[in-house]
Input
Amino acid sequence: MPDRPAPNITLEINRLRLLRPSSVPVIVGLGGSVAVGKSTLAAAVVEELSTLFRCEAAVIGTDGFLFSNAELETRGLLSRKGEPQTYDEASLLKVVADMRAGCSPLWVPTYSHRTFDVGPPTSVPIGDVIVFEGVNALQPGLLGAYDLAIYLDANATVIRTWFIERFLGLVAAAEGDTDSYYRRFVDQSADTRRTTARWVWDTINAPNLDRFVAPTKAAAHLVVHLDANHALVAVDPG
Output
């Protein structure tokens, strides 16, 4: 991912900001596959908004609105985690409504990739711009919540490679962390770890991408394209 996002992303967000009362934040939805780089792009957009336009901006990960692992297990959905039915969309929409009503700060749920589960809520100040990023961010039931919908796109084979490398990194980081979800894979050989990562992608993430995530690209206002080196190569209207 480049150090700076394409100018037309931040320019469009700032244009929307200038069209509304200062008390009402611009709400952006950023969707795309697992491991495509949504968090990185969201952080870069927030940084550029702050630097160029002195906007107060924050990022909220929609994974915080996943049902807990315990709840997903009760519902028989743990193996389908990340699909739309595993998220509490009503809670996310309520947070957006509270933002538009001027409630600040707001308490929003969090998610930890380390524990692979939802975490305690955190306080988010409501400034000029809020970016909601996540695999489910652009699902049909959520689109009406956003002033701008962005889809981050890359070749699926490339994303698979990025996911495998991220998985292996999380397992390596868990070697000294007994509380990490990924600690269970530490005793596997390097080849077995890689095989496990491929299985997770091919049986869980790839079907979710094909069935539920990639179709949301058609609803985006902007589609951001990355190459195999994480470099931003184009931003197209949706």
Notes: The longest strand covers residues 117-124. The CA atoms of residues 199 and 205 lie 9 Å apart. The mean pLDDT is 94. The first helix runs from residue 7 to 18.
